[in-house]
Design brief:
The protein is mainly α. The chain has one domain. The chain has a two-stranded antiparallel sheet. Strands 3-4 form a two-stranded antiparallel ribbon. It is globular and about 40 Å long.
Length: about 100
């Protein structure tokens, strides 16, 4: 889904409900994109590889299924490592925050 309105940006930047939180392999729990970027920044490469393989990308799936953010989901699919994933998320957060102004 494209971000067309401020309400779309607010929805994507907001917390999810508890059952839609992202539960990382290493125990970190994220309710929003800020928290996911923080988890990614501190997780091990092994934990990242648990969630991202040539056949799946749990972070991309979460962005698409929970927030409806196809742009971020596609960007996360292209990331080769967790550093690139953190950058994709923080860049997207910055863009969404500009939409709110």
């Amino acid at each position: 889904m494209a971000v067309r309105t401020k309400q779309d940006a607010v929805r994507i930047l907001s917390d999810t409900s508890g059952d839609k939180s992202f539960f990382c392999h290493d125990g970190c729990v994220s309710k929003n994109l800020h928290q996911l970027a923080e988890c990614l920044a501190h997780m091990t490469d092994d934990s990242y590889r648990h969630h991202v393989t040539p056949f799946k990308n749990d972070f991309s799936k979460w962005a698409r299924d929970v927030f409806g953010d196809d742009k971020l989901a596609n960007n996360l699919t292209s990331c080769a490592n967790r550093t690139e994933a953190v950058k994709a998320i923080t860049d997207r957060i910055a863009w969404l925050q500009k939409k709110l102004k």
